[in-house]
Amino acid sequence: MADVILVLNAGSSSIKFSAFDVKDDELELVTRGQVEGLFSSPHFVAFDSKGEKTGENKWGDGQKLEHADAIAYLGAFLRGHGAGHRLIGVGHRVVHGGAQFTKPVLTSPEVLDELEKLTPLAPLHQPHNLKPIRIVAERNPDLPQVACFDTAFHATQAPLAQAFALPESITKNGVRRYGFHGLSYEYIASALPDIAPDAARGRTVVAHLGNGASLCAIHAGKSIASTMGFTAVDGLMMGTRCGNLDPGVILYMLDELGMNAREIEDLLYRGSGLLGVSGVSGDMRALLASDDERARFAIDLYVYRIGREIGSMSAALQGLDAIVFTAGIGEHSKEIRQRVCEQAAWWGIELDRKANESGGPRISTASGKVSAWVIPTNEELMIARHTFALIDDKREGAST
Ligand code: ADP
User: Which residues take part in binding Mg(2+) (predicted)?
Assistant: First the structure.
């Protein structure tokens, strides 16, 4: 009977899932999908490893699914489609591990209580990430579950890279730079030795350009600095988030524009970035297809901000050997990759246009000083690997 690991990534209104077969200690994707629109018009869809649809269900407008209902539905679907499979563990994406959890951890009621205490550091994500762990534990207390953190990969950063220039009365509460997208960067760091051994040993800036976007400075596989800080709103311009902002602007919104904290939060997280600047869309595909002047300006600003932050990451690395593009925009938009590389040409990047058109993995010429790459990320596989490793350790521990 094949062993299976389930990976869950739960947000406020959606649960994404993937299931991996364990075959001779290798993990192989068997199914993936999501339930989205939990509180508006729930929609479930599942695919096999080749991307063929294997299941779909729509609940219709006005219907609601609690996270517990969605997980029960998902469990029934997986049992129905997984004849001959045995679920051995569940891995979860959890946005914040704080200063305490710098590695994935097997969950327990005590661990969950500690993770709950980090909610003030990520109020929009942490409670939703933890909910499914409690739901699964209630139904199946003996099933091992593992929490994998978006912050953990950045725990190797030096105290200087993590610090804000604020007094201790504030920073003692955990107010510092943490960095996010860590599971994506960890996956890229694990893939680099096979794809680009020099980049794996050297000073590499990885650009995770999805709806959320950040850069990570990686030296010999370890995170040195990143553009995201205390929250995932810092750094690069994103789909709907503003990125770097003079804190004085927030005071201006409070004092002069009469906005309250929730209104400012909504503007910074959901009304800024590509969407706010263009007034057209937060989706890069729509902006690239638009001939609206504001859409063009939004793309110009997006590329300009990446260029400036590559400078900052390279300074932290004391040099630059390679750039890696990943996530939705990084993996699929040859135009954005081309523009970022052209802007960073002064570093010694020479774009190989043909290779860029065909998607890489190497998209720079051999003669350039700095190489450029496209590597698809796989955060789910990273979570499944961590989950399997911790379950395996537990089994070995039990047998010795
Ligand atoms: P998330 O951060 O939600 O996981 P993704 O990594 O899927 O998001 O990235 C979504 C972004 O990728 C969107 O802005 C989308 O427009 C962009 N994207 C996807 N495919 C393309 C493409 N072919 N060209 C340009 N942008 C693309």
Answer: 9, 379
pLDDT tens per residue, range 223-250? 999 999 999 999 999 999 999 999 999 9
CATH number of the domain bearing residue 47: 3.30.420.40
209 labelled as ligand-binding?
A: yes
Identify the domain containing residue 318 by its residue range: 197-378
Asked whether 327 lines ligand 1 (CB < 6 A), one says yes
Is 9 assigned a ligand-binding role in the annotation? Answer: yes
Task: Clarify whether residues 310 and 204 are in a common domain.
Answer: yes
Q: Quick check: CB of 273 below 6 Å from ligand 1?
A: no
| Catalytic residue chosen out of the listed positions 21, 25, 61, 150 | 150
**Confidence label for 342 from pLDDT (cuts 50, 70 and 90):** very high
> 222 and 370 share a domain?
yes
> Ligand 1 centroid to 117 CA: how many Å?
32
Q: Is 180 domain-assigned?
A: no
Counting residues of the chain whose pLDDT is more than 90, the rounded percentage is 90
Asked if residue 156 belongs to a domain, the reply is no
In a domain, 59, yes or no: yes
Task: Give the Cα separation of 349 and 356 in Å (integer).
Answer: 13
Is residue 142 flagged as an active site residue? no
